[in-house]
């Protein structure tokens, strides 16, 4: 997620600080890469670069075919349906045999159990006010076919005839369907796996057990039919298209009779896996095709690019700072806007970002536009988003909103000491209890006047983030949450 303008020489704080080891699920359940260069659920790669750079996002893992192998088919046939618990971009959309503890469990009940694991924000309303009207709306999204198609020199998947390539996908709203083409090419949106993932998320989040059964029941469902049709053994595009058409018709029926809207009204947050998937869709249609724009930065300056990944941001905002929809989030150095958008979608709060690098700002504005359109397509409401261009030290809007902020992110991993000192002075006006998330501590051992100020206004707690939770390194690292006294 966005982190521009950053470098710091700060050292660990001398005062007592509590150290907490972050406990996380196994690596197979984490989104191990940024929501960027790897395709959603299948346009994938692993980020291993040890330095702050967008380069980890420039490649995706190799995949010999968009189809399931025969061994995959046998493995899937021998297991029961299970809920998707994460959306790693370097693993199949349909999960892993080891994921399920109770395969017979209903996805709606699994969703409810997930809800119980976090505090419920009753003020958060998920139903989008414009998504379920009487008329079909044009959400004005960037369609998958605009990015990956025969026109963009992507070859059709094996077995697809020219008149079978163009397809459409219904989402849980009264919006026009998204256009896909049955093509496949490395580094492009994988239509088959993207569609399978959408079907899974719709069933898991928007439908009850009985409603979801035709969609994802293991033995006979739209998804199972599509899944089977793209195995190496069958490769039957016509069957895939028929199952997709039946899925579209059934979901539209549930949208039109009010079922989907009613179910959404009973929810107060989205599963992190769906949050990650929606944000990944946004990124892959806006930033990924132009990611080379982020490679132009000056090493050793404040303007170095890197990202906090979805699981890390969820840990910070949901578990540790426990944000709610009536609060204010600010990202100082917001890059392409990833964290700003995640806060608005996952928390539903007012979310602000400020960035000074022109290319990043342009991509952030493209993301914001697609984000709003895609949330409408998914039928979900998001918090207010405001992206500011310029230096956060002099932005009148940001300086004003800092006084209202409940949580601030400042990825100062690469900030200069001068910029970090300026931030400490800015923190003087924060309200009591405001949380500041940073990659380096603002309190250190140097006996300086500015450090005395930081020590007097901030209580600092030190934590460790999990490996593969940032874009610039695969290793674990340090982060800090400071509370304004």
Outline the structure in words.
The chain has helices at 70-77, 107-116, 144-147, 191-206, 209-216, 222-229, 237-256, 259-265, 272-286, 310-320, 338-346, 358-378, 396-402, 417-426, 449-457, and strands at residues 19-21, 166-169, 178-181, 328-332, 350-355, 385-389, 407-410, 435-438, 458-465, 477-484. With 485 residues, the protein is an alpha/beta fold. It has 2 domains: 19-58 and 270-484, Vaccinia Virus protein VP39 (Rossmann fold, 3-Layer(aba) Sandwich), CATH 3.40.50.150; 70-265, 434 Repressor (Amino-terminal Domain), CATH 1.10.260. The strands form 2 sheets. It has an 8-stranded mixed sheet with strand order 1-9-10-8-7-4-5-6, with helices on both faces. A two-stranded antiparallel sheet has the order 2-3. β5 (350-355), α12 and β6 (385-389) form a beta-alpha-beta unit. It is elongated, with a radius of gyration of 22 Å. The two termini are 28 Å apart. Residues 1-116 have low confidence and may be disordered.
CATH topology grouping of the largest domain: Rossmann fold
Q: So what's the overall shape?
A: elongated
Rounded average pLDDT:
81
What portion of the residues fall into strands of 2 or more residues? 5-15%
Instruction: Please compute the radius of gyration using only Cα atoms.
Output: 22 Å
CATH class annotation of the largest domain: Alpha Beta
Class by alpha and beta content:
alpha/beta
Query: With helices defined by DSSP (H or I, 4 residues minimum), what is the helix count?
Result: 15
For this structure, what is the CATH homologous superfamily of the largest domain?
A: Vaccinia Virus protein VP39
CATH architecture assignment name of the largest domain: 3-Layer(aba) Sandwich
Distance between the termini: 28 Å
Q: How many strand units? A: 10
Regions with little confidence, pLDDT below 50 for 5+ residues:
1-116
**Largest sheet features:** 8 strands, mixed
Neighbour order of strands in the largest sheet: 1-9-10-8-7-4-5-6
- In helices, the fraction of residues equals 25-40%
The SSE string, one letter per element, is EHHHEEHHHHHHHEHEHEHEHEHEE
| Total domain count | 2
């Amino acid at each position: 997620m966005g982190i521009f303008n950053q470098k710091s020489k700060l050292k660990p704080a001398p005062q007592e600080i509590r150290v907490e080891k972050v406990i996380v699920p196994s690596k197979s359940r984490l989104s191990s890469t940024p929501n960027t260069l790897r395709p959603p659920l299948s346009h994938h790669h692993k980020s291993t670069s040890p330095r702050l750079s967008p380069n980890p996002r420039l490649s995706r893992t190799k995949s010999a075919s968009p189809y399931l192998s025969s061994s995959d088919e046998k493995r899937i046939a021998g297991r029961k349906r299970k809920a998707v618990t994460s959306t790693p971009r370097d693993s199949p959309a349909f999960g892993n045999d080891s994921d399920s503890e109770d395969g017979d469990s209903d996805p709606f009940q699994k969703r409810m159990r997930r809800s119980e694991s976090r505090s419920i924000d009753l003020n958060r309303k998920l139903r989008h006010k414009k998504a379920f009207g009487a008329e079909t709306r044009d959400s004005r999204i960037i369609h998958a076919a605009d990015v990956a198609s025969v026109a963009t020199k992507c070859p059709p998947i094996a077995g697809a005839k020219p008149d079978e390539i163009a397809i459409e996908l219904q989402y849980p709203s009264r919006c026009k369907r998204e256009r896909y083409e049955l093509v496949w090419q490395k580094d492009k949106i994988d239509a088959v796996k993207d569609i399978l993932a959408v079907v899974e998320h719709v069933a898991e989040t928007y439908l009850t057990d009985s409603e979801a059964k035709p969609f994802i029941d293991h033995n006979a469902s739209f998804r199972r039919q599509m899944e089977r049709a793209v195995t190496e053994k069958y490769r039957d595009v016509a069957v895939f298209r028929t199952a997709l058409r039946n899925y579209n018709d059934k979901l539209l029926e549930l949208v039109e009779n009010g079922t989907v809207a009613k179910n959404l009204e009973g929810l107060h947050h989205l599963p992190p896996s769906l949050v990650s998937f929606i944000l990944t869709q946004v990124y892959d249609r806006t930033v990924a095709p132009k990611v080379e724009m982020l490679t132009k930065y000056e090493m050793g300056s404040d303007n170095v690019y890197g990202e906090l990944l979805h699981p890390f941001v969820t840990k910070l905002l949901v578990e540790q700072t426990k944000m709610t929809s009536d609060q204010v989030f600010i990202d100082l150095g917001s890059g392409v806007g990833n964290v700003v958008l995640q806060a608005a979608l996952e928390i539903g709060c007012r979310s602000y970002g400020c960035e000074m690098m022109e290319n990043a700002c342009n991509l952030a504005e493209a993301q914001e536009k697609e984000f709003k359109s895609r949330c409408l397509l998914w039928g979900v409401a998001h918090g207010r988003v405001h992206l500011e261009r310029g230096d956060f030290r002099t932005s009148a809007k940001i300086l004003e909103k800092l006084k209202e902020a409940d949580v601030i992110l400042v990825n100062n991993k690469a900030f200069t000491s001068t910029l970090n000192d300026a931030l400490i002075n800015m923190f003087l006006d924060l309200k009591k209890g405001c949380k500041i998330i940073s990659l380096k501590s603002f309190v250190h051992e140097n006996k300086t006047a500015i450090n005395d100020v930081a020590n007097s206004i901030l209580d600092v707690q030190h934590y460790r983030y999990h490996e593969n939770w940032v874009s610039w390194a695969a290793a674990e690292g340090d982060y800090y949450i400071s509370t304004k006294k």
